[in-house]
Amino acid sequence: MSILNYAIPPILQLETTTACNLGCPSCLRSIFCSSDESLSFDMFTQIVRSSKSRYLTLHGWGEPLMNPHLVDMIRYAAGHQKSVNFTTNATLLADKADALIGSGLAAIAFSLPDIERCTPEIAGNIRYFMGRREASKSRNPKTHINIALLEENIDQVEKMLALANDFGVDKVTFERSFPWTPVLQEKEHSLFARISATARDLGCQVQLPLAHTVPCPLMRYTLFVRCNGDVAPCCYRADVSLGNILSDSMIRIVQNRARFVKYQKTDPVCGKCKV
User: Fold this and answer.
1) The pTM is what?
2) Which residues does residue 146 pair with via DSSP β-bridges, in sequence order?
3) What is the pLDDT along the chain (275 residues), one digit of tens a residue?
């Protein structure tokens, strides 16, 4: 029997809002979000109390800082022994910097889709946050630059790494973006080698994506929950509901996940996905 038949993934990825203040051309938000919704604090606490996952990731298809309760959510979850992190576009970061640093947040990632979209405002907000963390004399939250690899930015990885390193963050993380085409898959080995070589030259720490498997790492390690409580196979299959964490038992949800995994290879989307 597969562990997916009964195990609860260690990571709960909880979408706090579907609202976003940017319109990045590579983002699939418009496909999965028909309106702007936010998770209420009461719903959040109900989910956290019922969750057995150790790690809590507070982002989905929206900008987390657009949820007015985000800092309170982090404080609550950290107080319930959850290791909390989220990814942000950093446009709204400055006003919340001190509150986030003192919230118990374990890690924060600043999304860097490409050099051109890292505006002076965003770069300034990241530098400001790093300065406030240094002033607090705290090692937390850990800071990451998150780079979603795309066909249009793979020629920029050296420049993007140099910029990330200049910010002074703790780590630069890379992830494959959907769809990771056969052409990109063929380039993957040389691309990752370029990233590793540049990181060595710069003296910065990087984290490359896990090898693709079926079931994929996203399904094996993460339970993705939308802001209305619907559980999806992953953020890229937000169109599929495996139950609702607010109304269905975790046993039923995990069993539905196991059934989905059984046919993942033949699923019209997952069968072709190499993320």
Assistant:
1) 0.93
2) 111, 173
3) 454 455 789 999 999 999 999 988 888 888 888 888 999 999 999 999 988 899 999 999 999 999 999 999 999 999 999 999 999 999 999 999 999 999 999 999 999 988 888 999 999 999 999 999 999 999 899 999 999 998 888 899 999 999 999 999 999 999 998 888 888 889 999 999 999 999 999 999 999 998 888 788 888 899 999 999 999 998 988 889 999 999 999 889 999 998 998 888 888 888 888 88
Give the tokens for residue 155.
């020629």
